[in-house]
Amino acid sequence: MEIKINTHGNPLPESHGEWVDLATAEDVELGFLDFKIISLGVSMELPKGYYAHVVPRSSTFKKWGIIQANSMGVIENDYCGDGDIWGLPALCLRKEGVKIPKGTRICQFRIVEKAAAVEFAPVETLGNRDRGGYGSTGD
């Protein structure tokens, strides 16, 4: 699958199988509980019918003490202009803060095919056995 990308002068992202690493496009300094959308320095035109999941790399919290504030990002294919630069909404949980240098791989994305459109059919009852509610599958 070919994806048009404007790197705005940054290196191309690194592909690792299904996931592609993205890096900081700026030096970042965050204090404890500071929030910042960290620029990833790329704009992309994803193919029609696809979107991207963006999540932290497995080592991001261990190395930098930041979490992705929205848990998982979704970038739809119509977010595709040159000014639609991808970012990682980060929250610093390290008491001493953190300095992350430009070019640090901090998150990854994969391309996902959009699901079929959903239509709801309102009913008075679903007619199924109850399982016991939220959290009922075990201790």
From TrEMBL:
<dbReference type="Pfam" id="PF00692">
    <property type="entry name" value="dUTPase"/>
</dbReference>
<dbReference type="InterPro" id="IPR029054">
    <property type="entry name" value="dUTPase-like"/>
</dbReference>
<keyword id="KW-0378">Hydrolase</keyword>
<comment type="similarity">
    <text>Belongs to the dUTPase family.</text>
</comment>
<dbReference type="InterPro" id="IPR033704">
    <property type="entry name" value="dUTPase_trimeric"/>
</dbReference>
<dbReference type="InterPro" id="IPR008181">
    <property type="entry name" value="dUTPase"/>
</dbReference>
<protein>
    <recommendedName>
        <fullName>dUTP diphosphatase</fullName>
        <ecNumber>3.6.1.23</ecNumber>
    </recommendedName>
</protein>
<feature type="domain" description="dUTPase-like">
    <location>
        <begin position="21"/>
        <end position="135"/>
    </location>
</feature>
<dbReference type="GO" id="GO:0046081">
    <property type="term" value="P:dUTP catabolic process"/>
</dbReference>
<dbReference type="GO" id="GO:0006226">
    <property type="term" value="P:dUMP biosynthetic process"/>
</dbReference>
<dbReference type="InterPro" id="IPR036157">
    <property type="entry name" value="dUTPase-like_sf"/>
</dbReference>
<dbReference type="GO" id="GO:0004170">
    <property type="term" value="F:dUTP diphosphatase activity"/>
</dbReference>
<dbReference type="GO" id="GO:0000287">
    <property type="term" value="F:magnesium ion binding"/>
</dbReference>
<keyword id="KW-0546">Nucleotide metabolism</keyword>
